[in-house]
Task: structure prediction
Amino acid sequence: MKTELDGDRDFSQQIARTIRDAILAGHLPADGRLPSESDLAAQFGVSRPTVREALKRLAAQNLIRTQRGATGGAFVNRLGFDEAQEHLVTTATLLLSMNRVDFETACESRFALERACLPLACARREPQHLATMRAEIARQGTAGLSDEDFCASDVAFHRALVDAGRNPVLSWHLAGAVEAMQPLMNMITFTARSRSRIVDLHNALADAVAAQDAGAAGAAMDALAGYTLELGGQIRARRAQPAPDGATAG
Amino acid sequence: MKTELDGDRDFSQQIARTIRDAILAGHLPADGRLPSESDLAAQFGVSRPTVREALKRLAAQNLIRTQRGATGGAFVNRLGFDEAQEHLVTTATLLLSMNRVDFETACESRFALERACLPLACARREPQHLATMRAEIARQGTAGLSDEDFCASDVAFHRALVDAGRNPVLSWHLAGAVEAMQPLMNMITFTARSRSRIVDLHNALADAVAAQDAGAAGAAMDALAGYTLELGGQIRARRAQPAPDGATAG
DNA sequence: GACCTTCAATTGTCAGACAATTGAATTCCT
DNA sequence: AGGAATTCAATTGTCTGACAATTGAAGGTC
Result:
């Protein structure tokens, strides 16, 4: 099974693409073992380091895992939701940081996406989801909670909310979006902290989901989005005109 | 700047992670050049092939690009929306194919997500978006259109719809989701072809967006989702009880 | 000054070797 | 015969050194 390559350039990339396509096409079943590096080198007519570079490319995409030893080798990975979510978060984080996405745009997309799961969450939420949401709200109300912990709890709350929709694909998308936005959210929460207001809005959301009232849930989500945007606007204004320190009326 | 590694294993992975974190943290600006492979090898105290494996990992994630020649080297990539969407599609495709996600779940998430952009699309759509949608609908109505072209047009229509929301982050998420679902959608369209019904639903969507009526747009989207699910159910039923060939009643 | 040549830096590739790991086969003891 | 310890072989991880290909830049020529 000598496989030909396009004569001139970047063998490792071509090999990686070839194997990747084979995996995506299902020719290589999950948990199946690839030939050894030496065999692959012989098949493609290249040296082992070149094959290794190709395999590292695939490993970077979580398409394969490697194991040493007699029965070791490269095995096709079964991509789970957790790993896929890591990918999503990494990509989204890079995207946001490298494209000068402004806060309003990021915020808007995040809440628009999360809003998408509200009907499902209201219809399918189970006691465990409600319990998690309530627990996180309670946690957010405790005094002396650090900003980091508050943000983590915030993420956990929204995670429970999207999980209540009981659609893993949707949860993957939404949780990834929420997690990728957290750095931006931190910037807000750390500066203009008004936790009680956020706790109130979270409670309204939880109430609506508990009552299976999608309309009310949507309204609560809109209110949360509006408040977050408002905070973002305050931050920007404060930066543009930095500190009339005494802060009189005006 | 000798950088230490955790003594025992998989240097290339550690090096890749180190550089990746530096990029994500912004220590390496976009389009900035990394040290040469030899320099990196010296800095990390490993050989050049090991450094190369690390760089290939980063290249596989589109974090860097490499260029040969005197002024060549590895450069930090500015991750654009297009490349990021490729990532998203690849990950989503793998996720769907490797986790036995059933059609209903995938379909539900896809339409829930797309529904999220309808208010924005109705509020902000511009003539160009409407024109694209109309053009694709017209294309979908032409006789003799191949199934592949019909599907491509379908994707283009939905792409225009989400772009009408004029939020690039949202477009990235939604277009990625739509494109990842296309293989599944093909399965449907190729079998139970009912293009006129789909064209009607697309027209209803376009009308609602043109009229900036978010409620009607949501209803049209729900109808489209319902019809798609219905088709999926038919396919499944037909598979479970394969071909009472003459197709008489009951 | 414009064009050509040479050059040096850098990535891409190769060959062979050795170390580390690990499951399986083998041997040895009971 | 059965189980435990040992040996073994296959495989990945890494190193060394080298050469080829590419490409912008420096220098030389007209």
Notes: Residues 9-12, 46-50, 53, 67-72 of chain A lie near DNA strand C (CB under 10 Å from a C1'). Chain A has a mean pLDDT of 87.
